[in-house]
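Hi C.,

You asked whether I'd gotten around to modeling the 222-residue construct. I have! Everything is below, sequence then structure, no commentary in between.
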Amino acid sequence: MQQQRIHFTQKLEELRMHIIRMAALTEKAVQDSVRAYLENNTDLAESVIMGDVGVNEMEDAIDAFNLELLALDQPMASDLRFIVGSMRLTVNLERIGDEAVNLAHRTLFLSTRPPLPSNPRMEQLAMHVQDMLAKAVRAFVDGDTALAADICGMDHRADELSIKVLKECINTMVEETRIVERSVHVIMASRHLERIGDLATNLAEAVVFIKEGQSIKHRCKG
């Protein structure tokens, strides 16, 4: 029995490492998509789009690993929390990867049009949600529920910045109707970034669930 427990613990650690690798891949996708957008780098945007298959494959592999753990072993309550929590983590990591791809597509479209005036709010929003994601990943790696709780408060700021981008784009469209189409894509780009912030908050919620067995969904807001 003790040998079985040791073996199961080793497999849980293997699962943890799979999630960390997926998180690292997803973080890089977000970083690259943001850089591609801010620098109008179409090659990097294409790279993000092509690389999404790797994130999807990792999600499938982790799902299969989780199902194997549930089918072949008898996990304790804390083990079940980790497995269920890891399922939540991988779903949200995959969705973050999708939003990085969406942002890359906006970059490709905008690269075919004349550049819009600089919008500092977009850069602020991009930096903020990247910080949220990095902290969410670190909270999982370290099992840090206090850091996870901090991310809940950060989501409010991401929402505020997204709204400011929207208002500034609307003002610009009113002043010059020729740039309406491009401004709409900027608004959508800001929505992709804001969504990454939402999903990073979901990661933080999963960390709290894994460590404390508490569900803070719908309460993790600033």
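If it helps when you're writing up: Residues 131 and 197 are 9 Å apart (CA to CA).

Thanks,
B.
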